[in-house]
Amino acid sequence: MTDLLIQGALSGLLIGGVYGLIALGLNLVFGTMRVVNFAQGTLLMVAMFMAYWLHVLTGLHPYLTPLVTVPVLFGLGYAIQVVLITPLLAREKTREPMSVLLMTLGLALLLENLALLLFRGDYKTVQVNQTNAVWFLGDYIVSVSRFWALVALLATVAALWAFLTHTDLGRAIRAVGQDRQVARLLGINDRVIYNYAFGISTAVMGIAAATLVPFYYIHPGVGTSFLLKAFVIVVLGGLGSMPGAALGGLAVGVIEGVIGIWTQAAVAQILLFAVFIAMLFFRPAGLLGVERK
Amino acid sequence: MRIEERRVAVVLALLVAIIVALFPAIARALLSDHAYWIQIYIWILFFAMCATAWNIIGGFAGQYSFGHAAFLGIGAYTSTLLYLNLGLSPWLGMVVGGGVAALAGTVISYPCFRLRGAFFSLATIAFAEMLRVGGELTDSVFGIVINGARGLVIPPVGDNLWAFQFRDKESYAYVIYGLLLGTLAVAFAVKHSRLGYYLAAIGDDEDAVKSLGIDTARAKLIALLVSAFLTAVAGSFYAQMVLFITPTRAVSLDLSVQMVIMAVLGGLGSVFGPLLGASILVPVGELTRAALGGSTIQGAHLIVYGALLMLVVRFVPGGIEGHVREGCRRLVALIAEALYGPATARPAPANAPIMHLPTNGVALGVRAAAGEATPLSLSNVTMRFGGAVGVKEVTLEVGAGEVVGLIGPNGSGKTTIFNLVTGFLAPQGGSIHFDGRSIVGLPPHRINRLGIARTFQIVRPFTSMTVTENVMVAALPRCATLSAARTESQRWLAFVGLSHRLDTVADGLSTGERKRLELARVLATRPRLLLMDEVMGGLDQRSLPGMIELVRRIRLERISLLIIEHNLKVITEVTDRLVMLHLGEKIQDGPPLDVVSNPVVIDIYVGGAAALR
Lengths: 293, 613
Hints:
- The complex is a heterodimer.
- Chain A is mainly alpha-helical.
- Chain A has a single domain, classed as ABC transporter involved in vitamin B12 uptake, BtuC, CATH 1.10.3470.
- Chain A has eleven helices and two strands, in the order ααααββααααααα.
- Helix content of chain B is 57%, strand content 11%.
């Protein structure tokens, strides 16, 4: 039984890497703009289809697709912010930008169902060397493709952390997130910062997609379940906290993996939502977040 | 609107209602594929009912629920289970289902209503998803079979009124027409009741509503209960029409989202907006589905829903209802002119200045009894924020009819004291008494009911409401009827000199006018102690004397005042006593001129400069 539990936790930890990446994207946008991006999951779906078609059409290994998808997705995210969101932020100065939430919801519905129309609803998969490969860690099985997903998460968190603390643009993003008025007074153009934040958060989906495609199905509706989990993770780890998103992602993965040993995965889903509501209620700043006055 | 126009409007509205009601019969007579059209008609009315119900909490109060399908599912399952197990007529089960949904709403409201904006939305999604997944996993509850994801089938029994089953679609069409009519009537009644005013104000700024003595949690709860009940009733109808329900379909996120989109497209907060939204989206979605290859693609209509939602949010933020209403108004005017000739004497424009009422304390009836004991006393009050000191061991009194000024540099704790007295913060130490009664731990609206009102440093008018409506929100708890509140509000607006702005939407006011509006609003709560946070701040030199005069007149009403103000010249003029705070501690308390000439005070206020010299 213990063996099974450890195996479950291990598998969960590895898939948690992907969850963490998506939560990272969500957090970057929320941390700077206080905007909940309902299209985050859909953008992951877009990234997955990009990686899929790149692989199918050019034979490029999925792990190399970020070379193409990350810049393209950054441009896409940047454009979404400029064209769709900035005009709304200009309108709603003080109130919480609920109209942005509705806008991203509209975008998610549009993209998801367009993809359904274009690619149909069948489940696509990609077979590469890593797809079914496993390593043995003592008595436990480690899926190679999932292992790389965890590595990708850790590398991305490290890179983002370095970027946010050691570059001018990164520091500007953090400054705007903490207090956009003061940042503005210090000569930071917050509008441009938002564009970068949204661009980067979309670009991260390229990395998530690259690690997912070798072992997960590709389907227009794939984003929704990831999005709901990412909400839980973000609230669990702390809004706006990068390490929180990563740790939250891993924690959710482990919870799913362990509960999956006992019973159906769906039970884990119910439990996660219960945790989510309890967190919102008792500790809205999250486990690693900082309470704001 | 002149009387002829009103007559034309009523006749037109009735005509439309009758034509819509008779549509199924007309379709049967004229169209060969009438079953198809009647089915679309039913879906329009069904979604209109759901969206109208959603709008009562989502639009009226600005609480965007993304989990309303949970209530729909509860209604569908309750009536169905009661019918299958006990043979109870779904007509009765429908009402029971509404009750169960309202009960569920009460449970959900407890954690959810503490959350704001997007977090509220996310929590409602979480609840609905829990219900859906839980339903899919459960085969029976306490011996009652619900069949998990396989769902429940209601065996068809042919035409049977008791069983709520009909062979022809027309009967269902008439039923949903009646249900929608009832839902619209409820929405209309809520919108035009005092609850409707509270909800609209909550949608703009909930904290400001609380400070006016209104129990916002209760207002939101009532709205949610009504909304949940009606959504559940729609759910029972849905179950009877398709005779097959599963958690996956009835509690789907897509369904919840569609209610939101229809209400947003039509117009949040308007009674008929969701109906308009459904009338456009359902047929357009149906056409898209047909154009893009029928039912093979599940979400074809959602492409259009998503695109339209984006366009509306970007270009028609208020929804289309306002524009449609304007169009109807013009049409009515044209018809009235054709029938009765051109309009003659037009009534005065709404924003013409009205007569100023004579104002004095007696007429307004707020003069407090003289010689009352100290209304407000703080003793050793302490409040910390994390490691930082907000206020420390502050003892402070305000006597009956007394005007006390609170001064001190930024961050000295002035606004914190206001937040403590009005219940927006709870002190960690010390006591606060009003009329000899401890008010620590009371929620803001209760404290306001006791007679303490406040203004905010940065004014917070309800920006989507008119000036009169702003004040009405404050006056309503003390008025028997809406019209009494309106009259009362206009008296207060005359008192502060805003009679020429009664019907202006508050968003369009200048800073000075907003400050006056906020004063009228708090005065309408009939306070005995008024806390004013920098009411003179941000005013230009020409507006200042008017505001000083206003403060004097409020004082004549024998309302005790506690005033935060940076302009020392002004504050020494209007106050009886000054209290000086520095770094959260009280360092001076005495006659204004003594305090401002005290060297310590001068040092703190002009400290840096004096030291440099």
